[in-house]
Amino acid sequence: MGLTAPPRAGEQIATYDPASQESWVATRLDLLVNWGRANSLWPMPFGTACCAIEFMATAASRFDLARFGMERMSFSPRQADVLICAGRVPFKLAPVLRRIWQQMPQPKWCISMGACASSGGMFDNYAVVQGIDTIIPVDVYVPGCPPRPEGLLYGIMMLQEKVKRERMSDTTLRREMEPDPTSGLYIPAEAIDELSEPFGNSVQQTRSVL
Amino acid sequence: MSGAFTPVMTGSADPAAPRPVTPKAVPYRNGAVSPSAAALRAQFGDAIRRVAVVWGETTVVVEPGREGEIVRWLHDDPSQRYDYLSDVTAVEFRDVEAPIEVVWHLRSLPFRRFLRLKVELAKGGPLEVDSVWPVYKSADWLERECYDMFGIRFRGHPDLRRILMWEQYREGHPLRKDFPLRGRFSRSEQLRQALMANPEARYSMEELSIADAFDDLPEEIRHRLATGERTGE
User: Is A94 on the interface with B (CB under 8 A)?
Assistant: First the structure.
């Protein structure tokens, strides 16, 4: 090709002939693995409310989740990559959601779909968890009540971006959360109380602090 | 318990009655009283406190303690045949002196009748009524829900546990007026108790048996389980 230096004595030079049918690519292993992961995220749908209806619409032909390599719904957490929590989660369901997340093998991600899953939404009451991030770690929050399929798709694409930027050298990425064995919480209790501070029209509600 | 299933034709007990039409211009009060109200007065006399007709539906308020036999009679008597229990619930009013009402919604398919039965319980006193489970098996979960949400105890219910909240729920009965909307505990404490509930220990795959979590169950449930009582039939 004109760029190679003249070979020294006894040295073998690898040559590349563009006319030959051989082809090869040099890249970082990270990029290859992340490319593969980001484009074949298998979702574990955890649908509890109206967000699940929008999620079904996202998976159906008009919005076609298959374009993102996610058409394979995994109804078992063992074969899932991304947990999509669509809908409100009552306290009674909190240990179930926690267990499902723990059953998913690494690498795994979580999308919190809709206002209720992200913050408790309008259900600022005795029965509903004020954001599933108090139970499990969340990667992407999709706002909306419920989010339109475009919103969920945007959240999924953001998750794909996040996956593509992961580096194998970052050892904190695949770390499992370790809940406190005495309380079951994985973030401090004060943080949970602060996260779930009342807002909106229910500020006047009284609550005794245990 | 029950024999072969025989279908009930709606209105079959009263074929001469006009066919039902969508009611129009139903008066708020003073509509037609259900014939069951007069029959109840004739049968039980003083046990019937008062009868009201609201939007064409008859409400009968009965004496506490008599509701079991009254419901039994309404179900068994050939002139009533209330064969379908559509709801058991309760109502609490904000006024301190207003009693808590327990409500039964009964329907007679053969006579095409609807009857609302109420019992008033003073707020200070024991919230106890008779279970109608011996008459209607469908009352099982309805009464459990009423117990869970209002704390009303149903005498004779075979398995009076919480049904919506988990069994170790300690904050009270959520639909009572003195229950704060967000519950009594802080969010972290609520989450801690919920995550510690360990539902798998309670509901095993083989049978809905109570296994590892026996010790943190309330006293009366432990007693009932220890004596071998099981849900329903």
Answer: yes
For the complex shown, is ipTM > 0.85? Answer: no
Does the global pTM surpass 0.80? no
Asked if A92 reaches chain B (Cβ–Cβ under 8 Å), the answer is yes
Q: Starting from the edge strand earliest in sequence, which strands make up the sheet with A109-113, in order?
A: A43-47, A82-86, A109-113, A140-142
What local confidence, expressed as pLDDT, does residue A2 receive? 52
CA nearest A98 in B: which residue?
Answer: B195
Residue B47 to chain A, least CA–CA distance (Å): 39
pLDDT at A152 (0 to 100): 93
For residue B169, what is the nearest residue in chain A, using CA coordinates?
A92
Which pLDDT band, with edges at 50, 70 and 90, does A154 fall under?
very high
Instruction: Please state the rounded mean pLDDT for residues B85-109.
Output: 93
The verdict on a CB contact (< 8 Å) between A99 and B186 is: no
At residue B72 the predicted structure's pLDDT band, cuts being 50, 70 and 90, is very high
Q: DSSP per residue over A9-78, as a string?
A: TT-------TTSS-------HHHHHHHHHHTTPPEEEEE-SHHHHHHHHHHSTTT-GGGGT--S--SSGG
- Judged on CB neighbours under 10 Å (0-12, 13-18, 19+), A29 is exposed
Cα-trace Rg, chain B: 21
Give the Cα separation of B27 and B47 in Å (integer): 27
